[in-house]
Amino acid sequence: MPILNRRSFIKAAGVLGASTALPVNLARAADKPVTVGFIYVGAKDDFGYNQAHAEAAAIIKGLPNVTVIEEENVPETVAVQRSMEAMIRQDGAQLIFPTSFGYFDPHVIKVARKYPEVRFAHCGGLWQKGVHPDNAGSFFGYIDEGQYLNGVVAGHMSKSKKLGFVAAKPIPQVLRNLNAFTLGARSVDPEITTTVIFTGDWSLPVKEAEAANSLIDQGCDVLTCHVDGPKVLVETAEKRGVMTCGYHASQAALAPKGYLTGAEWNWETPYRAHVMALQSGAPMNNFMRGGLKEGFVKTSPYGSAVSDAAKAAADAVKASMLKSELSIFTGPIRNNTGEVMVAEGTVLTQTDVVLERMDYLVEGVRGQI
Amino acid sequence: MAEIDYSVLLLALLAGAIRVGTPFLFVSLGECLTEKGGRINLGLEGILVVGAMSGYAVAYLTDSAWLGVLAAGCAGCALGAFHGVICSLPRVNDIAFGIALILLGTGLAFFFGKAFIQPQAPSLPSIELGAWSDDARVRSALSVNVLFFIGVALTLLMHWGLRATRWGLVLRLVGDHAQSARALGYRPALVRTLATASGGFLAGVGGAYLSLYYPGSWNEGLSSGQGLMAVALVIFARWQPLNCLWAALLFGASGAVGPALQAVGISSGYYLFAAMPYALTLLVMYLSCRPNQTLSGAPGELSLNR
């Protein structure tokens, strides 16, 4: 049914556009009551990835006629299938947000086929038309824009010109953040280097603390990370009097002195779009992506340590990002062994799939994949 | 690549050995004590997590890190006693029950620990041995937690106590030959239960070190198998408390070597370095547990020997 599909796609795109463009209070409250389920891979108050989701879920909970059910610490195994089925059969959930990357294939796909009347909006997966069921879909944000802004602020604030980045695994998403952070800092001063430490997994508190200490011993004076819970890194840095940029959610409360700014998810936007589509009976938008401009990511308010010059510079960069004038990955970009990765004159926009396959470290990153 | 600063690397390894190794030290001393009595408590992993949670919770509620350590020890002691009593029943396998205790302990800790992930508890004080130095790196590396010194003192105390006191002798006798102990009028089950409970106390304190000092906060991913690795470590240490200290430091350093090397610019093969503590554990098990080789120093009543 190609016509129907095209129609539903256009309608869904319209719903997304309307939902992001319209202010909240214009959204009609007199919608039918719905039950929405959220599934997290870890604790929902981890100062990190899961907290970012749970904060947005709390906003959804406040919408009229929406009942929210949540389950945390659900591993990326058949356990998530059981959780989803329980939400559908016991609580009557009509829309489920499985928020962890590993839930998608095969778990979400399998349950979505079994319950075609329920919608599954997965975070981070790559939904493909025709391959995956139409009642499933994926959304994700371009948080590298936030990391670029982190880099701009860090570049202004660093005295040693050495930054540190604690990364979990060398996968494209992580490398994209690391590279964006470094490019942001080097847009301020091309002398700046970022030392990266890979810990090997998403949550290894002892190793993250050890990595932070090693970076500080090496003279890095602004740290950031891409691990599930940045709490340990931020606390360790604060204890040692070093500045940090946050990730996932705001860690400002953990480091009143050294917290500069942070790249945060703003999942409220895609959540709201999906819930509104469900309430109004509009078809599901299966594939959503967005950055700062679309409201999928946001930045933490500047910390007390940030200088006025840094604030002004970061605000200017943010403004040009919001106007789509600035692309982070604009050639020429070399990797850290000197090879040209993005040719001069090439501008990779955020939606470019080449960026989702990133496998190099840009010039200025000290480390190896 | 930039030149490599070896002094920084060595310093990081030394500091890491102490920082990362301290929980290993406590858990392995606890396991050493338990195994000297002839029982294996694999549940120390669970006890460690319970200790980390209860220590953090009590420290937060009372605003005193030391009360937290005490609470962690008591919680560990209770779970250890539980293991000891259950395993005194006929036909209970201590290894199987230990695995059950891991699951029970982590489950309990996650359940009761929910409310304590967000708040910040006071942390344990450390002693600044590096105050003489102008270098912030040296100062930070030599800022050593008080619990480490307590651990070293305990090591010496156990080393002396096991060989030179009546209690030590009884414990070793029960662990080596329960029938002789019984013939002499001792009650092996009671001695073992006490040993397991004290072992649990130490493991609980090890957990409190994790949540109250390094990395210094409670969350559900806090332990990465320290409790289980400590069991291997005791075998590696040949059931000698003094060796437990060296082994704990070695394991600590092997945990710190990955980040330290990457920080100075040696970044190839970091997965290998990350796997080092586990590879070391495997190597130790291979070297010490081959079938044609008896374990020198192993208590005779251990279920892996019988």
UniProtKB/TrEMBL annotation, chain A:
Q: Which Pfam families match?
A: Bmp, TAT_signal
Cited CDD domains? PBP1_BMP-like
Keywords of this entry: Signal
**InterPro entries reported in the protein's UniProt record:** ABC-Purine-Binding, PnrA-like, TAT_signal, TAT_signal_bac_arc
Say yes or no: keyword Signal present: yes
Statement: the UniProt record of this protein carries the keyword DNA-binding? no
Q: Which PROSITE patterns match?
A: TAT
**Where in the numbering of this chain does the ABC transporter substrate-binding protein PnrA-like domain appear?**
34-309
Question: Looking at the record's lineage, which domain of life comes first?
Answer: Bacteria
Q: What is this protein called?
A: Bmp family protein
Query: Which species expresses this protein natively?
Result: Alloalcanivorax balearicus MACL04
UniProtKB/TrEMBL annotation, chain B:
User: Could you tell me which species this protein originates from?
Assistant: Alcanivorax dieselolei (strain DSM 16502 / CGMCC 1.3690 / MCCC 1A00001 / B-5)
Q: What is this protein called?
A: ABC transporter, permease protein
User: Does this UniProt record's set of keywords contain Coiled coil?
Assistant: no
Give the way it sits in the membrane: Multi-pass membrane protein
Q: Mainly localized where?
A: membrane
Which keywords are on file for this protein?
Answer: Cell membrane, Membrane, Transmembrane, Transmembrane helix
Q: Where in the cell is it found?
A: Cell inner membrane
Can the keyword Transmembrane helix be found in this entry's annotation?
Answer: yes
